[in-house]
Amino acid sequence: MEDSIPDRYEHNPMLVLVENFVLDAIGRLDSEQAARLNDIVNRTFGGTDWRTTLRHQLALPADTQTTLNTLWRRRQEEAELKQEDLTVEDFARQMADELFRDMGQ
Length: 105
Prior knowledge:
The protein is an all-alpha fold. The protein is built from six helices and no strands.
């Protein structure tokens, strides 16, 4: 039987939330997924807006979403110049990894 949770998330389930936060910041999270996240995050941590709640839980600056959007555009341009593929999922994973590395995890 195959494990339904990839090892990446089994050891740190917050990565899923952060990756979705990144996808939302760059306009790539569908509204149904955002609604599900709003319910899950606010039921778990309290609050009324999952983005704000998650940002507070992770002690992220208020301008994090804007910063991520700017960084996404910049990395897209860099990838294009280097003729590399950069998917939104790759970018979200990279940003989540960087965030948790900066937190010492």
